[in-house]
Design a protein that fits this description.
It contains 11 helices and 11 strands. It has 297 residues and is of the alpha/beta class. Helix 1 crosses helix 2, helix 1 crosses helix 3 and helix 6 crosses helix 11.
């Protein structure tokens, strides 16, 4: 079995698209299409079929995918083991983190790591919780941190540090000038501005509102913390974000944190790992920085 052709097939099945697979593999789309056709001819069975929602594996393709991912996991494990022999004199550390963690918590740690190990290349992927977990499962990350609840499944979930979510409003909003903590009912007629589905911040906020018996009448979904702060500062509603994500805008006098009675939203930021996967020296060194940063929460 030609492993190069197997890799082309797995990429098309993963991205459900020949063009996206070609982009991810840095080859041309015709080369991917030709390679998959050759692979199907070698195996004597169709592996992919096109449909309204994109490209899907056939029954034979689904069977082959299970073995393909096992092959590539073993390949990555071998690379990790060889990388460990090189120590911290070279190599790449691939870090994946949920948006809030990547934007507000990791930059000082990345700077500290680079100063200590300047010959190790750093790659940071910022994505929502679901995407980070998926990348870890595919062994495309060495370190993974998320901010949302997660069904562990094949992943080990370990607490890292605590984070608080707060309600925010424009400084000119009528609720921003009311004295004392607001009753939750005061938000009943407001548009609640939340992160997109799949975001850990959104899941935490939504679950806390549900536990408090509050269902927003109107929700505005926004992809990104900074966009939410700007939308809220423009007077479009009441936002819910991590306190660290709003600190700068609050200091500039563009936003105000609203104290709301009867609800406190806190969450545990977590580290993800794969069982029985031996971390390389770079990942171990970064884990030490994460351990030291736990005391800052």
């Amino acid at each position: 079995m030609n492993l190069h052709l197997l890799r082309l097939f797995e990429a098309v099945a993963r991205y459900q698209s020949f063009s996206r697979a070609a982009e991810a593999l840095h080859v041309s789309q015709p080369a991917v299409s030709k390679g998959v056709r050759e692979f199907e001819a070698q195996l004597g069975a169709p592996l992919l079929e096109r449909g309204p929602g994109g490209v899907r594996p056939t029954e034979a393709g689904r069977i082959l995918l299970v073995h393909a991912r096992a092959v590539f996991s073993a390949e990555q494990a071998a690379e990790d083991a060889l990388g460990a022999l090189r120590g911290l004199r070279r190599g790449t550390l691939r870090i994946g983190a949920s948006t809030t963690i990547a934007t507000y918590f990791l930059p000082p740690l990345l700077g500290a790591f680079h100063r200590a190990h300047p010959d190790v290349d750093l790659r940071l992927t910022s994505a929502n919780t679901v995407t980070v977990a998926d990348l870890l499962l595919r062994r495309e990350l060495d370190v993974a941190l998320v901010e949302g609840p997660l069904d562990p499944g094949e992943i080990l979930v370990q607490p890292w540090r605590e984070d608080a979510l707060v309600f925010i409003a424009a400084v000119a909003h009528p609720l921003a000038n009311r004295p004392g903590p607001l009753p939750l009912e005061a938000l009943a007629d407001e548009t609640i501005v939340l992160r997109e589905l799949g975001s850990g911040t959104r899941d935490t906020a939504w679950n806390a509102l549900a536990q408090a018996g509050f269902t927003p009448r109107r929700v505005l979904e926004v992809g990104g913390n900074e966009v939410i702060t700007r939308v809220v500062a423009a007077g479009l509603g009441i936002g819910i974000l991590s306190a660290v994500a709003v600190a700068d805008q609050e200091a500039l006098g563009r936003l105000k944190i609203l104290p709301v009675a009867g609800i406190t939203i806190r969450r545990t930021l977590t580290r993800l790992a794969l069982p029985n996967r031996q971390p390389g020296p770079a990942a171990v060194a970064f884990d030490r920085l994460l351990d030291a940063a736990r005391g800052d929460s």
